[in-house]
């Protein structure tokens, strides 16, 4: 029982940290601090993935979002010349806040009222293998069956990096 209580406490701490950081991202005035809070939010999501035994998603979250996108946002903010002004308020903020609260209420109601059919702990052999060997199977599929698509995606990413470097290069 103590283990479950500890897991629940850690889950709620991660959830509160993630949601709090996400809310602060849109409310803080400094773009650089908003980018750092975005990293905290992404790390909280990765922690929640790790808690529900989705280690592959947790590692992918850290590598892709924290390691790639958030660092890219920080570089973009650092390359922006007028960072000190921050986010300017707009007259539609109260309407956007009202719509966000209505959406949150609707989603909360839908989640609470939904019937969640959870998988049993003792799955038959083939179904259990899907949840255990998924990263290894995904790797085999990418380098064996879908190698052309994998290489094309890599070439597109490489071209995007070269294009981004060409755009930010000072003349």
Give a structural overview.
It is a single chain. The chain has 171 residues and is mainly α. The protein folds into 2 domains: 89 residues, NADH-ubiquinone/plastoquinone oxidoreductase chain 6, subunit NuoJ (Four Helix Bundle (Hemerythrin (Met), subunit A)); 51 residues, no CATH class. Helix 6 crosses helix 7. It starts with a helix and ends with a helix. The model has no long low-confidence stretch (mean pLDDT 82).
- Biggest beta sheet attributes: none
CATH top level class name of the largest domain: Mainly Alpha
β-strand percent reads: under 5%
In N-to-C order, the SSE pattern is HHHHHHH
In total, how many beta strands? Answer: 0
Unreliable stretches, pLDDT < 50, 5 or more residues? none
The name CATH uses for the topology of the largest domain is Four Helix Bundle (Hemerythrin (Met), subunit A)
- Percent in helix: over 70%
In total, how many domains does the architecture comprise? 2
Structural shape: extended
Q: If classified by CATH, what would the architecture of the largest domain be?
A: Up-down Bundle
CATH superfamily of the largest domain: NADH-ubiquinone/plastoquinone oxidoreductase chain 6, subunit NuoJ
- Assign the structural class, choosing from mainly alpha, mainly beta, alpha/beta, alpha+beta, or little secondary structure: mainly alpha
